[in-house]
Amino acid sequence: MAAAAWLPATYSYVGLLTAVAVALTMVGASSESRIVLHASTNLHNLAKGRFGTLFSSAFLMGEGAATVFIIVPLLACLLALAERRFGAVKLVHTFFIGHIGATALVAVGLWVAVESQLLPNSITTVEDVGVSYGAMAVVGALVAVLPPHRRWVWAASWLTLALGGVLVWHTFTNVGHFLALCLGLGIGRLMIRREVAPLRPFGWPDSVLLAGGSVFACLMLLG
Fold it and tell me: Which residues cross the membrane (predicted)?
């Protein structure tokens, strides 16, 4: 139990998110906007070769402080469950594959749309930071820790919700959520094939974490 309670990746990431959120409340609105824009993975920054934004953008949340302090504990539930089930290294790999992979795919799609004049050029400078792409990949990867008879239900439910967000709101963020979820499901499938996430019964701690993580995912997809 003590080993299961030590979750270095979850604690470190949640701590950094909280510290950055608190720090941003201490600067003026104009400074906060400048910081967020500088860390954004928008086409303007990527075109200038600021590829560090692919990492920095994962440590900022565009929502207000009150929302952050609601979202972060729910995110912590999701990350803690994943880390308890398949370890810190796989959690970090899954999160950043989802975050960077979905961001890159969305950026290519936006570039094509802007060059084809399907979207205005102003979209190249929008704020684009947050944890949702990486988190949705983790949601998808959790298929590996579920009993076989529940895997299809889990995958189909989240794919339906994510695709519904794309069809209803038509934003590139919704597309990114869908792509990140697909990447996570692919990672989960590899884990199943390689048997790297042994199946264990869900006790009450994991059930609570799963519920909190599911609420977080719903808020990201429907928010």
Answer: 57-82, 94-114, 129-145, 152-169, 175-192
